[in-house]
Amino acid sequence: DTGSQNERVVTEEEWLQKWETGNIGFHKEEGHPLLKKYLDVLLNGRSGLRIFFPLCGKAVEMKWLADMGHSVVGVEVSEQAVKEFFSEHSLPYCEEPVPEIPGAKMFQSTSGDISLYCCSIYDLSSSIVGKFDGVWDRGALVAVNPRDRQRYASLMISLVEKNSSYLLVTVSYDPNKHKGPPFYVPESEINSLFG
Ligand code: SAH
Known about the structure:
The chain has helices at residues 12-20, 33-43, 61-67, 79-88, 126-129, 149-158, 187-194; strands at residues 50-53, 71-76, 93-97, 105-109, 114-118, 132-138, 160-169. By secondary structure, it is of the alpha/beta class. The radius of gyration is 16 Å and the shape is globular.
């Protein structure tokens, strides 16, 4: 029963505030062990992939994958998070407006292999960011407000190539005991969202 979470909304303003106050317990300095464990599934023997990080925060896994020769694109509403990502890895970057999205900025490493869009994920489309061979969805679907899940899943489906791999991390717990995020997304719902 996920009923008690269905109405819960975390606004963009609240996310920005979490970043400002350093309330970012979700950030993993050491990276996520499940990406290491399932890297082969993500890559599936391929090299030079385009990999998407929805709701990316300052996930260190973006640096890992770029260092392996992949091209990484992320989207994050907090400009502070994006800037911290580049500065904490000592990566020089440039910053430019995104013509299709009023107010949005794109931060790109000087080497060109990491591009982070600072805007809401719902502003993106494949005509702006292209399509991806792989997705690392950790702290993303489970951070999306329950009422926006369908929209999020439809967007993600529109952003992936036919032969893509999508790694999704969810969290299993009793949704009546914690209000989220991360929200509890049962497997049955994942099946109905992604088919
Ligand atoms: N995936 C990251 C961060 C998870 S926390 C990690 O593994 O560490 C979720 C992040 O999504 C936060 O940094 C928050 O600022 C961002 N966010 C929330 N709503 C968003 C939206 N609509 N578009 C883009 N980013 C969003």
